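Entries read chain and fold; for instance:
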Amino acid sequence: MRRAGPGAGATVHVPPSLENRRARPDLDNVSDRPDPRPVPPEKPLPSDCCGGGCAVCVNDAYEDEREDYEARLAAWLQRHPEADPAG
């Protein structure tokens, strides 16, 4: 296969898997990347917090991670409507 642009005289190797995708429009929306369900963050143990009023407490970091997880899970559930929301 030849392409225009820099090195226009060069031949570009296109893997058969990509060439087949061009030849098969029914595969255009199929992703080769896995899309696993997001995993919730691990809740810190009570002993993980020193109680010293740290600028970034382990409990605050956990809450931030949990909110991020919930957003990623909501997006994942939209992509996988057949999945059980409860997990």
Observations:
- The chain has a mean pLDDT of 79.
- The radius of gyration is 23 Å.
